[in-house]
Design a protein that fits this description.
Blueprint (H helix, E strand, L loop, with lengths): L3 E5 L6 H12 L2 E4 H9 L3 H8 L1 H16 L5 E4 L8 H10 E7 L2 H8 L13 H19 L2 E4 L5 H13 L1
Parallel strand pairs: 1-3, 1-4, 2-3, 4-5
Helix pairs in contact: 1-8, 3-4, 4-5, 5-7, 6-7
Length: 170
């Protein structure tokens, strides 16, 4: 049985921040799929999207998950926000460990990402409308992939981490 902690959720839901705090509390290695893909591809996610398109990026994510499923365990996996959109990815994520969906509402996400220019799917004018529409589309897929849903709105990072660690021990 894998004891990996898998963090999924929309961009700005807190995956990277929570992963860092989990690492501090547990000493367990973090694997950030976006950072790993940027390193492997030698270009930013924005560049991959612009040059190859979203479908090609999603394929790279699936290939990365397949490789992770063949390797060692005992890590915290922080995923890109769109990774659970593909059905195959949801199945692989579940096989890798316990999946936690970090759920945040539009206002929380907007506050966290409003200054970030490195998110290709939020480029343009009406970020609130884009976030709302994408959450409506993706939330059911996140819920299908998740073993546990953690509401992050109004919670500190420490509260979210405590909740995850409590559930992961069960």
């Amino acid at each position: 049985m894998n004891h990996n902690i898998i963090l999924i959720g929309y961009m700005g839901s807190g995956k990277s921040t929570v992963a860092k705090e989990l690492h501090i509390k547990t000493g367990v290695e973090i694997i950030d799929t976006d950072k790993m893909l940027v390193k492997e591809q030698g270009r930013s996610i924005n560049e991959i999207f612009q040059t190859d398109g979203e479908a090609a990026f999603r394929k790279l994510e699936t290939e990365l998950l397949r490789r992770l499923s063949e390797g060692e365990s005992n890590y915290i996996l922080s995923t890109g926000g769109g990774m659970p959109v593909r059905e195959e990815n949801r199945a692989i994520l579940k096989s890798l460990g316990t999946v936690f969906f970090l759920k945040a509402d539009t206002d929380t996400i907007l506050e966290r990402v409003k200054e970030d220019t490195q998110r290709p799917l939020l480029q343009g004018t009406d970020q609130r409308a884009k976030i709302t529409a994408m959450l409506k589309e993706r939330t059911p897929m996140y819920e299908l992939a998740a073993d546990h849903v953690i509401e992050t709105d109004g919670k500190t990072v420490e509260e979210v981490v405590s909740e995850i660690l409590c559930l992961a021990r069960k």
